[in-house]
Amino acid sequence: MPGIFGIIAKDRSKTDTLKSDFLEMGKILSHYSYYKMESYEGKGFIFGQTGIPYRNFTFIRHDTQSKRGMVFDGQMYGWRGEPLEKPAHLTAPVENIKFEKFDSLAQVPQLINGSFQTVLFDEENDYFCLATDRMGFRNWYIYEDDEVIAFAPEIKGFLALSSNKVEVDRGGMVNFFNYQFLANSRTLMKNAIRPYAAALFEVKNRKMSDLTPYYTYKYSNELDGDVDHYAKLFYEKGAELFERQIGNEPNFMMALSGGMDSRLCAHYCAESGRNINYYTHGYKKSVDVRLAHEVADVLGVSDNFYSIDMDEQNYPRLGNWTAWLVDGMTYMGCSYLNSVIEQYKEKPLEAEFLNSQFSGALNFAFGYDNSKHIIPIKDMPYEEILKRVAKIYGADYINDEYHSLFQPDVVGEMKERFYPDIEEILKFNLEAHDYFIGVMNKFTEDSKALRYMSSYDLYRYVYNWHFILIDDEIIEMHQQVPVRLNSDRIMYKRIFAKYLPDVAKVMYEKSGADLFSPPNEKYLAKKSKHTRMIYKIARLTNGMVNPYDKYNYVQLNQWYRKFPANRKYFESILLDKRTFARGYFNEAAMRTLLKKQAHGANYFGVISNLTSFELFNRYFVDREDPPVNPME
Length: 632
Description:
Blueprint: E1 3-9, H1 18-29, E2 36-42, E3 45-51, E4 60-63, E5 68-79, H2 107-111, E6 112-122, E7 127-132, E8 141-144, E9 148-152, H3 170-179, E10 192-193, E11 200-204, E12 207-208, H4 227-246, E13 251-255, H5 260-272, E14 275-281, H6 287-299, E15 305-308, H7 315-325, H8 336-341, E16 352-355, H9 359-364, H10 382-390, H11 400-403, H12 408-426, H13 436-453, E17 465-467, H14 472-479, H15 483-486, H16 490-499, H17 501-504, H18 521-540, H19 556-562, H20 564-574, H21 577-581, H22 587-598, H23 604-621
Parallel strand pairs: 13-14, 13-16, 14-15, 16-17
Antiparallel strand pairs: 1-3, 1-9, 2-3, 4-5, 5-6, 6-7, 7-11, 8-9, 8-10, 11-12
Helix pairs in contact: 3-12, 4-5, 4-16, 19-20
């Protein structure tokens, strides 16, 4: 994944392997031949940036007079409360930093409005500041051992460190097994963490401070007005941000799923008159694909709309590569996305990808926000709060059958850590709102959205990408909206009804109704019945008949059973002697799980995640040669 990386030697006199380790990091992180790398070397440290060339920008700057410098990856939209001298899309972020204006370099990231990761340094005072943006959009990892402090956008970069004797972080492993993703700051690699949002670390005298969050997300309900007032405010702000974020670049592309977020972003794209191609992917007869076509028709962009077929047998070809890309720490079942990316018309250096994934979710409230959560925090026992947020992490689905897949010592640790690891994130969010709805929203963003969903966003490895409608200003506006209008996406739906009425008339798949109407209970009941029927047919026929589900755009469980190559791929990894020799899994239970899956059960998510974990062990712990990029 494009980003900044580097190494700080704790002893400046012991730098024998510093440069060779750094160059190896760059090699490991440069996944495509068109990636470009730049670097800066100081006394006992060396920093770099690698990724897709972006608008001829440079991402490293060093001021010879002040001996201050920085490396930066991402977008800078402005200063907090103050615009840039030149439009953001015309200026490399590092050129906007006037070092002489700041007494302390730690002030800089706190004042930037943008989506970024950065390291600032002062060579004269041997000082470093490592920081992420306020929402934590970009994957970034920090590593520390007795000899070095290092950072990288993927933990595989740390394989290059001579001092890194890679071991599995037991706590991270338990975290991954419990929730199917790494929910807090732990990773699968010992000594490596993924910082929380608004993270700031200072390195003084070659010693790194503890994490210092420089921003606390807090709802305030200070804005006045009715729902129409807010709809106008946010719609106009969205249009302003769209123009500012993408500027006058002519060639863009975006994914149009037909959901609310992509509808709104596609509307702004269509209104701009720019040359933008729109893509959807999925089972051709699915409701999602049909609705994406309808939205494209209504927006008048059908001539630039493309429906992409997925490679249903992608795993033998793309599975290992995908697991390597995502560091074996997330859902490698997403490798079908790589088969979609292969079919885009645009070459990586010819267009930029507009990511609409979190635009509505962060700005206008998650679907998790509903009126049943409008409960004053002061009226809720802590145990009830914990129980409710734990449902997001699958607390209702972790049972003895799942635990049987693991050895007894692993199960003991899983049970012991299930709630404490959730509490580690919850403690950052209890003050987010006076009502549980706000706490729930922020908890979801910090965990499932930014540590799970964003981790398998494979587009950013191939294209320069933007979050179209996200910046600090609109997020702060969201924090000031009355709680009654954040529930059930009331304000968000009002934007569509008032400013995109024709788009609002297209059915919303999650509700079965248009955006003017309450959920269609008959549709939802029919959908539930159909999904149960699909499952029963597969089970009753022992997996011999696997009808596709029109209410789902991907058919992962069906693909596993329908294509022997897929099944053999997963079995060859999970039933290998090396896998069981590690001492984590119960062989009998694993064989039973795979047999049930083949005979009609729906366990693909679990199978995919356990496969990711084993591939992490092979590539990171065993140091097997990484897979060759099959997409180039």
